[in-house]
Design brief:
single chain; 562 residues; alpha+beta; D-Maltodextrin-Binding Protein, domain 2; Dipeptide-binding Protein, domain 3; 2 domains; 13-stranded mixed sheet; 17 helices; 26 strands; globular
């Protein structure tokens, strides 16, 4: 079948309103039951596990680590970790109106845990592990491994610990080994994100005994060894790992946590240039071109020779993040002046970026209301291109004659980001602002986010859990998480975010706080939203089973090759 599919997802938040009911529907009497699954020797779509090899190229960089907890691990690494490691639970799936498949975060399903039971008071959950699950080295998976892995995630710092904290998973004291097959999580407080936070990529289950010989005083969690080695129990093992060149995954024939994948071997090739990736697909040398540029989405679709899928990415923005602190790198920071940030936000050539950099393959996030009327997220900011307004605001700022600054972007996104920064550079020159463009290698861009040392960056953040307060917890909260690219800190903003996190959708308190922090974001404008992007994939017509995931990576377990 040769067709283009545009997967319609909610631009806003409506799906989240059914979360509580959806999770309760997964189990009766507060106990999750294992759904019917295909036998271990068949693929989920019904095809027998075979000997097919799938060859994949992807944009946005190449996996730079096998350890998802490592500082600086990039987004493409999520896809590899997703299949070499298991988590206790995974998300269900749903069929969309056009017949396409998407994950369903309102439904939790068993993965390494075959079942779980909530305490009557709702303040803990107890998981029963699969008794036949083994790691890739053949040793059994036990609750001790689960506890060590959870302890690592909340203790190692950086993004993993921020992610666990988002679901009120903050301390090793919360995690308890009942026996070899039983693991208990004690809740710090009622939190709508706790259960679903245990199904995102971060809480992977690691073979603790395998890592133990590699622990040192300087590296108590084995990060150096896990950076290049596999200690998982997932559906695929690492057959070959050549950093920055190629990764070969091989199906783990003793995998027990789901239906056996149809594809036996997956070859990931590092092909940085979009034109070369496209040429490989057109010649038939690769099966899947993932994270296809907006230009190639349009043109490959027009050929009629490939299956092209475009999905608006939930809870995601491309944005210009402006460092909001008064000082940066020991010097006065012009972007710490809100009038400067507002001026820049009015000078950005939004329509030109949408048309020439993104080829119309995105949802505009500009030209909206200054006072939010809904809790939809993302929603358009009130800014549009208005050079007269931009000049007036800059004249009112402490930098009326302009200044010199730097705008950095990830070279893994150069197909759209490079023309975008050039357009911004040209526009800001009209204000007397000289913009130097910094091209950051994709493998290093996560470190740039962590350092927060650049005045401006092009950011590409999407919240895994589809709530506006979750997005703002990462992108606007004063804890200064990795994805707060502006290093924005405002106690009033923090109060509103925390109040929303502690309440439920549909409550007036929740709605008021969400609208409040969105309005504050527009006034303070530490980031200027550009668009809600689409995730594009182009496949040979004999490839089926593609499913959109919130982590924006392929799930090789679900793909089939005829």
């Amino acid at each position: 079948m040769r067709r283009r599919r545009l997967i319609q997802t909610s631009m806003g938040f409506a799906a989240g309103l059914t979360l509580a009911g959806g999770l309760k529907a997964c189990s009766s009497n507060d106990t999750a039951s294992t759904p019917d699954t295909a036998p271990a020797d068949t693929a989920e779509g019904g095809a027998a596990a075979g000997d097919a090899t799938l060859t994949v190229v992807q944009g946005g960089g190449f996996p730079n680590s096998l350890d998802l907890h490592r500082v600086g691990t990039n987004r493409p690494a999520y896809g590899v970790s997703w299949v070499i490691y298991d988590r206790l639970m995974t998300f269900g799936k749903k069929t969309l109106d056009d017949g396409s498949i998407s994950y369903d975060y309102t439904v939790l399903e068993p993965e390494l845990a075959e079942s779980w039971e909530m305490a009557e008071d709702g303040m803990s959950v107890t998981f029963t592990l699969r008794s036949d699950a083994i790691f890739h080295d053949g040793t059994p998976v036990t609750a001790n491994d689960v506890k060590w892995s959870f302890d690592r995630a909340v203790s190692i710092g950086g993004f993993p610990s921020f992610q666990m904290k988002a679901g009120a998973l903050e301390s090793p004291d919360q995690f308890e080994v009942v026996d070899d097959q039983t693991f208990k999580v004690n809740f710090l407080r009622p939190d709508k994100l706790t259960m679903i936070d245990m199904a995102v990529p971060i809480p992977v289950i690691i073979n603790a005994k395998l890592v133990e010989p590699h622990l040192t005083d300087d590296d108590p969690w084995g990060a150096e060894w896990l950076n290049n080695n596999d200690a998982g129990s997932g559906a695929y093992t690492i057959k070959e790992y050549q950093p920055n060149e190629r990764i070969v995954l091989e199906r783990f024939e003793d995998w027990k946590s789901g239906p056996m994948p149809q594809v036996k071997e997956v070859i990931l090739l590092n092909v940085p240039e979009a034109g070369n990736r496209r040429a490989l697909l057109e010649r038939g040398d690769v099966d899947v071109n993932f994270t296809v540029s907006e230009k190639d989405q349009t043109e490959l679709d027009a050929t009629g020779n490939f299956t092209v899928v475009s999905t608006p990415i939930e809870n995601c923005l491309y944005s210009v993040d402006m460092h909001a602190n008064p000082e940066l790198n020991g010097e006065a920071n012009p972007l710490g002046d809100v009038k400067v940030r507002q001026a820049i936000s009015y000078a950005i050539p939004y329509d030109a970026i949408m048309d020439t950099a993104l080829y119309g393959q995105a949802v505009p996030m500009y030209g909206g209301s200054a006072k939010p009327e809904t809790i939809d997220w993302p929603q358009p900011s009130p800014y549009t291109t208005d050079m007269e307004q931009a000049k007036a605001l800059l004249a009112e700022s402490g930098y009326p004659d302009g200044f010199e600054t730097t705008l950095a972007f990830d070279m893994g996104t150069q197909e759209w980001a490079e023309p975008t920064v050039v357009l911004i550079q040209e526009a800001l020159a009209e204000l007397g602002i000289t913009v130097n463009i910094e091209k950051v290698p994709s493998a290093n861009f996560r470190s740039v986010l962590v350092e927060k040392s650049r005045p401006m960056i092009i950011n590409n953040f999407g919240g895994w859990l589809n709530y506006p307060d979750y997005f703002f917890f990462y992108a606007y909260h004063g804890q200064d998480a990795t994805f707060n690219g502006s290093s924005y800190k405002n106690p009033e903003m923090d109060t509103k975010i925390e109040a929303a996190l502690a309440s439920e959708p549909g409550n007036k308190e929740y709605d008021d706080n969400v609208k409040g922090f969105i309005e504050m974001a527009w006034q303070e404008v530490p980031r200027a939203p550009l668009v809600q992007p689409q995730l594009g994939v182009a496949m040979q017509p004999n490839i089926t089973g593609y499913q959109y995931w919130f982590h924006r990576q392929l799930d090789f377990r679900q793909l089939e090759k005829a």
